[in-house]
TrEMBL record:
InterPro entries: R3H_dom, R3H_dom_sf, R3H_domain_containing. Residues 3-59 form the R3H domain. GO terms for molecular function: nucleic acid binding. This is R3H domain-containing protein. Pfam families: R3H. SUPFAM superfamilies: R3H domain.
């Protein structure tokens, strides 16, 4: 699922990357919406680039790991 992949990319970005920003390139409007929402759950800044097709997320001082992953939440609801 694309949502779980995005969540994992953001977790990896928070945990392992020294960069302060990450760009999710050329996405559909639905995919961009998902990135915005997942980034907000992690307390990150999130904006579209100048083309309006990519989302850039930024680490912040309010950034946090979520208590439960989306994958675990989906399994619990089944």
């Amino acid at each position: 699922m694309i949502l779980l992949k995005m969540e994992q990319e953001i977790i990896d970005f928070i945990s392992y990357e020294s960069n302060h920003y990450k760009e999710f390139l050329q996405m559909s409007s639905y995919q961009r919406m998902l990135v915005h929402r997942v980034a907000a759950c992690f307390g990150m800044d999130h904006n579209v680039d100048h083309t309006g097709k990519s989302v850039i997320i930024n680490k912040t001082s309010n950034m946090r790991m979520t208590d439960i992953s989306l994958g675990k939440k989906l399994i619990e609801e089944e």
